[in-house]
Amino acid sequence: MVTVATVVIGTYGLRVARTTSDFLVASREVSPAWNAAAISGEYLSAASFLGVAGLVLKQGVDVLWYPVGFAAGYLALLLFVAAPLRRSRAFTLPDFCELRLGSVRLRKLATLFVIMIGWLYLVPQLQGAGLTMQTVAGGRYQVGVLLVGCVVVANVALGGMRSITFVQAFQYWLKLTALAVPIIFLVLHWQADGRPPLAPPSGATFAHSTTVVFDHAATLVRPDGSTVDVPAHASMDFPAGTPIPQVRGVESSSGANWLLPGSTETGGGRDRGLFAAYSLILATFLGTMGLPHVLVRFYTNRDGAAARRTTLVVLGLVGLFYLLPTLYGVLGRVYTPQLLMTGDTDAVVLVLPGAALSGLTGQLLGALVAAGAFAAFLSTSSGLLTSVAGVLSTDLLGRGSVRDFRVSAVLAGLVPLVLALRAGGLDVSQVVGLAFAVAASSFCPLLVLGIWWRGLTAMGAAAGVTLGGGISLAAVITTVVGPPLTGWPAVLIGQPAAWTVPLAFLVMVSVSLATRRRVPVNVGLTMLRLHAPDPLRL
Amino acid sequence: MPPEPPKRVRVVLVDAAAPRGGGDHTRAELEEQTGIGEALVKGLVRTQLALALRCAAVVAVGLGSLPLLFAIAPAVAGTRPFGVVLPWLLLGVAAYPFLFGVGWAYVHLVERTERDFTDLVEKH
């Protein structure tokens, strides 16, 4: 039943994505409300749809900073970037570099980072796709990643440029509905069950009798301290009311740790926990403005004031959406605790309706949620791949012909596909958080200083982007493929933004001051264009 | 600025194509980047940046102080208004209307600043 629904939704998704028209044709006359829904539709990715709930289920209150930061990023965008960027008439970040600082070299460097950030952001989308296929259709994770990856690449390479505004806007409302309708049923069900406690102090218990299937061999630690070894592919039955055992090697918080801030997420130590929290806040607040597929959308606003209004509406829409995943994570504590044992916490949104509600209602709501998940990673990954392939084909590989674009799309899709196949064990939201950290350490200082400070030079910008972005990128690579770290190095490398963002700003300002003579001569005119109110038409 | 008698202007719609009576002088100062024009732009940029930084500071204090507060006063983090533990209520629900409110106030204020600047340019 669910499989059939998935196939139907999949073909529907393909058809929607194929009724595309060239993004540029959508011109600039899109009203803020439509534009905002379209931006939100493209922005709310697998990380938002699946990952946030998974992290809340696993780690509790501390990870609520992820959705808050994902939304607050639009406030930073509104305050510092939206209107001046629109007035600059830059279409992409590399365009902005060339317009503001007149340096082709800096343009190439920015292109490189657009591609890196795009790839980093594509990985978790494909992970989400693999996970959804695995959970909903029962296939293998790798098959899901490959299938969706190839579909998206083929779609972007053959199908044309990008979904039109209407389709993207529709995607937002689809995603919102897909989470909002089931959660109403789920909360009512929880009420009817007599509100089972979310974080009982004595440790969680199974609400229903549950069969847990283990894909890998695992060691269970019972609350009394005894251990049980489970071989791979074994299944175990737990009657209702049994305490949930911990699985060795699967990090999760329980009881008060889950409920209250300052958990043991980073392996103990209040200072480290605090540092990680602030680092995450900084990365998500400042990273949004550096995401390639977000900025492109601002070009479709009529003028600077419309860009601001659009951003404000996006902030409202995205904030509305983020009220929901938290509830899934919380109710997952009651109805799908087995995910804590298998480690598939990212699947909680997909599994919860079927697990809590019996019969047809559960299945239908499960299908609705799956549809939302498909919308999430199809829209975001298509948008991202288009952005990456676009800059790749115009700036690095060729001159932007259709053939160049197709080759670029295939190349741009291959790298994240390979990475996603290898990165199955990482949390979707965590990988996205890392992409935000790189964006915040490279493009955020470039945009903010470029818009507000006359003294920025191309040398300074290049040095800051290279150092801040390079170091945070190295930190990300270490986190993904490097050896497991503990203590302070784990925090500094796992959540690098708190030191790489200030570093990037510092380097950019000091190198610019050292090369003061090379401030562009027309900086006054550029500033006038960026900041003069739209009605003056200067 | 030289004291020119202000001319009466009838503005129907602000349009690039519309003929302009006043504002030519300041407009020229701006476009030609004279000392006055540059000072005007610098002033505008400074006002806008100050406004943006003030709004950012409101968020930095309103949200940014929370991890520290929870860390140094765990008793506060444990209170349950409306039956929900405080950090969940603040981060899970209240943060979003707060962010939107700050954004709304910013748009309101920045549009007023821009109107003032436009009036200044159009009238002199």
UniProtKB/TrEMBL annotation, chain A:
<feature type="transmembrane region" description="Helical">
    <location>
        <begin position="367"/>
        <end position="393"/>
    </location>
</feature>
<keyword id="KW-0813">Transport</keyword>
<dbReference type="GO" id="GO:0015293">
    <property type="term" value="F:symporter activity"/>
</dbReference>
<feature type="transmembrane region" description="Helical">
    <location>
        <begin position="275"/>
        <end position="299"/>
    </location>
</feature>
<keyword id="KW-1133">Transmembrane helix</keyword>
<feature type="transmembrane region" description="Helical">
    <location>
        <begin position="311"/>
        <end position="331"/>
    </location>
</feature>
<keyword id="KW-0769">Symport</keyword>
<dbReference type="GO" id="GO:0006847">
    <property type="term" value="P:plasma membrane acetate transport"/>
</dbReference>
<feature type="transmembrane region" description="Helical">
    <location>
        <begin position="431"/>
        <end position="453"/>
    </location>
</feature>
<dbReference type="InterPro" id="IPR038377">
    <property type="entry name" value="Na/Glc_symporter_sf"/>
</dbReference>
<feature type="transmembrane region" description="Helical">
    <location>
        <begin position="460"/>
        <end position="481"/>
    </location>
</feature>
<feature type="transmembrane region" description="Helical">
    <location>
        <begin position="405"/>
        <end position="425"/>
    </location>
</feature>
<feature type="transmembrane region" description="Helical">
    <location>
        <begin position="143"/>
        <end position="160"/>
    </location>
</feature>
<dbReference type="GO" id="GO:0015123">
    <property type="term" value="F:acetate transmembrane transporter activity"/>
</dbReference>
<keyword id="KW-0472">Membrane</keyword>
<dbReference type="InterPro" id="IPR050277">
    <property type="entry name" value="Sodium:Solute_Symporter"/>
</dbReference>
<feature type="transmembrane region" description="Helical">
    <location>
        <begin position="64"/>
        <end position="85"/>
    </location>
</feature>
<dbReference type="InterPro" id="IPR001734">
    <property type="entry name" value="Na/solute_symporter"/>
</dbReference>
<keyword id="KW-0812">Transmembrane</keyword>
<dbReference type="GO" id="GO:0005886">
    <property type="term" value="C:plasma membrane"/>
</dbReference>
<comment type="similarity">
    <text>Belongs to the sodium:solute symporter (SSF) (TC 2.A.21) family.</text>
</comment>
<feature type="transmembrane region" description="Helical">
    <location>
        <begin position="106"/>
        <end position="123"/>
    </location>
</feature>
From TrEMBL, chain B:
<keyword id="KW-0812">Transmembrane</keyword>
<keyword id="KW-0472">Membrane</keyword>
<feature type="transmembrane region" description="Helical">
    <location>
        <begin position="85"/>
        <end position="107"/>
    </location>
</feature>
<protein>
    <recommendedName>
        <fullName>DUF485 domain-containing protein</fullName>
    </recommendedName>
</protein>
<feature type="transmembrane region" description="Helical">
    <location>
        <begin position="51"/>
        <end position="73"/>
    </location>
</feature>
<keyword id="KW-1133">Transmembrane helix</keyword>
